[in-house]
Design a protein that fits this description.
- The chain is of the alpha/beta class.
- It folds into two domains: about 120 residues, Medium-chain alcohol dehydrogenases, catalytic domain (Quinone Oxidoreductase, Chain A, domain 1); about 100 residues, Rossmann fold (3-Layer(aba) Sandwich), CATH 3.40.50.
- The strands form three sheets. A five-stranded antiparallel β-sheet has the order 8-3-5-6-9. The chain has a four-stranded parallel β-sheet with strand order 12-11-10-13, sandwiched between helices. A three-stranded antiparallel β-sheet has the order 2-1-4, with no helix packed on it.
- The longest helix has 14 residues.
- The protein is elongated and about 60 Å long.
- The relative contact order is 0.13.
Length: about 240
């Protein structure tokens, strides 16, 4: 099969022919239609995670994918050849990624792709969508709560905006001015350009009691600590 792989950490990588992987017990092999790109792929390629996770070379990067089931391993009942699926490969090591014509994936990290979701959209969703869902679940916004989301125009942040709105929350989106129309289209009711305004002062001016929760989808620990002053209890941690 054709795949994009690296021979070593920091390598530019190249497209080459690699053996077709075989599906083992509890696994499926998928013909990849689209693959998502995430920051973790760059980190793996640069060796930042080499002490945390086994890396096998040639290193095929990529976590997210969508495609059609090409083969099923022993013990697999929920998927058949031809089923359209999406998810993450779920392998316990790096190197058997989705930047390839085929990928082997654990059935525990894959689901059926609904017809309403295009292959490209499905491939962009798994890691970002799951991260956003876990974040929104953690702060548990109630209907009518106001939630401040930093990095609202990014992959995780954009999903978090929509999930919070679906739960009845009002969202204040922190993003650059050029993204204001985009995040409003996702459901944000207020937008603050963090590059030109003092975020805490702006939030407290409109919401003197503070917001119910803060979701940090972009920025470092210092930014998180600074924004925490906008939260009702000054923390923004799960309630």
């Amino acid at each position: 099969m054709r795949a994009f792989a690296l021979e070593g950490f920091g390598d530019a990588g190249s497209v080459r022919d690699l053996p077709l992987p075989e599906a083992g017990a509890g696994q499926i092999r998928v013909r990849v239609r689209a693959a998502g790109v995430n920051p973790v792929d760059w980190l793996m390629g640069m060796g930042v995670l080499k002490d945390m996770l086994e890396h096998r070379f040639p290193l095929v990067l990529g976590q997210d994918f969508s495609g059609a089931v090409d083969a099923v391993g022993p013990g697999v009942d929920a998927f058949r050849i031809g089923h359209e699926v999406f998810g993450v490969h779920g392998m316990p090591h790096a190197g058997a990624g989705t930047f390839a014509g085929f990928v082997v994936a654990s059935t525990g990290t894959v689901t059926h792709r609904p017809a309403s979701l295009t292959p490209v959209a499905a491939a962009a969703l798994p890691l970002a969508g799951a991260s956003a869902l876990m974040s929104v679940d953690a702060v548990r916004p109630a209907p009518g709560d106001t939630v401040l989301i930093a990095g609202a125009a990014g992959g995780v942040g954009g999903c978090a905006v929509q999930l919070a709105v679906l739960r009845g929350a009002r969202v204040i989106a922190l993003t650059r001015a050029q993204n204001a129309e985009y995040v409003r289209g996702l459901g944000a009711t207020e937008v603050i350009d963090y590059t030109t305004r003092d975020v805490v002062k702006a939030v407290r001016a409109a919401h003197p009691e503070g917001v119910a929760a803060l979701l940090q989808a972009a920025g470092d620990a210092a930014a998180l600590a600074g924004y925490a002053g906008a939260v009702r209890d000054g923390g923004g941690w799960p309630r």
